[in-house]
Amino acid sequence: MALPLEQRTEFHALPEVVKWRSPSDELVGLALLARAAVERDGCDPSEVVLVVPSVAWGIMMHRACESAGVEADFLVPRSLLGRRALDALARLEFIAGSCDESVLSRFDLDDARTKGLLEHCGALRGFSLAKALGLCDCEEFRHALRHMVGDEDPSKLLKIVSCQIAHPTLPSDNTSIPIMHCLHVARVPRRLFFAGCVEGLVPVSVGEALPDRGGRGIFSAFACEAREQVVFSYFTSIEERIAERIGIVYARTRTVDGVRVAMTRPSRFLNEGDIGRYSTDGGQALLRRRGLN
Q1: pTM for the structure as a whole
Q2: Mean pLDDT per 10-residue run, the chain (293 residues)?
Q3: Most exposed of 81, 164, 201, 291 (fewest Cβ within 10 Å)?
Q4: CB burial readout 114-146, b (16+ within 10 A) else e
Q5: Which of 61, 83, 85 is nearest to 73 (CA)?
Q6: How far apart are CA 24 and CA 151, in angstroms?
Q7: Three-class secondary structure of residue 246 per DSSP
Q8: Is the peptide bond before 203 cis (omega within 30 degrees of 0)?
Q9: What span, in angstroms and rounded, lies between the C-alpha atoms of 93 and 99?
Q10: Beta bridge partners of 230
């Protein structure tokens, strides 16, 4: 059970609420803050987590980390894999001879393409196999593939991928900051940065969400259990076409340089209970104070 703020000790951080002008500003800014926690403050990378409200936001976060020179891994459970990733995993399961009827039904065993897939990939090993099956093209699998040695046959590769999807772990020589979906953060770390806290993304709504995990419970746990730092982050504007496509709620629109921009609403959870007691900080001002921009 989450510890009420008034009962916390010096071992629990007070929540910070940070706003940014745009999603790109937010994602790059959080990546820089996370890197500073590792490089300046001496945190182990596994104890600094970038939390996202959706797989799409996780992929965007991973790309932002790459552009900012921040090493990161996106840890994605099977229930949240995208269609392309599921198709690549199905091909691997098929080649490894470890698929159920639902996967097997995707393949026509008499089709020339299916026979070619079996012949071509059955003889491949390691990264050549992963690339041929399309695993290397899916950002959801990049973390799992870091656990490869390079000589894996289809069965061994499937075991690695399946294990990392079910119970993601960080390699023993890990130097990457994990990116995790908010519904799958099993243990609150020393430093936690929660991106995309706007209406339409948070509360979280996914098909297999656990009861109440998309609601106030997860915010309360993050706010009360992070030991050193917990940042809830949101952005104030986004292109209207993107907001419409991904379901972000916005109050109004305006035109900036000929582009329709939606003005977002912070997640309702940022204005409730304990978190609502804290003032909001500007992202760029925060970066300046910490010498990160």
Answers
A1: 0.73
A2: 40 78 94 92 89 88 88 80 84 76 59 71 85 85 79 86 70 74 80 92 59 59 76 94 89 90 90 66 91 86
A3: 291
A4: eeebeeebeebebbebbeebbbbebbbbbbbbe
A5: 61
A6: 38
A7: helix
A8: yes
A9: 5
A10: 15, 192
Q: Sign of dihedral through CA atoms 175, 179, 185, 189?
A: positive
Widest CA span in the chain: 67
Query: CA angle at residue 72 from 199 to 163, to 5 degrees?
Result: 95
Amino acid found at 268: R
* Residue 171: Cβ-neighbour burial (10 angstroms; 0-12, 13-18, 19+): exposed
Residues 6+ apart with CB under 8 A from 274: 4, 5, 15, 220, 223, 224
Strand 191-194 relative to strand 177-181: parallel, antiparallel, unpaired?
unpaired
- Structure tokens, 87: 């198709």
| Cα–Cα separations (whole angstroms), residue 87 to 3, 83, 193 | 42, 6, 31
Helix H or strand E encompassing 60: helix 55-67
Provide the residue type at 39 as one letter.
E
Nearest to 290 by CA among 181, 15, 103, 281: 281
Quote the Cα angle for 200-206-211, to 5°: 105
Measured CA to CA, the distance from residue 266 to residue 200 in angstroms comes to 9
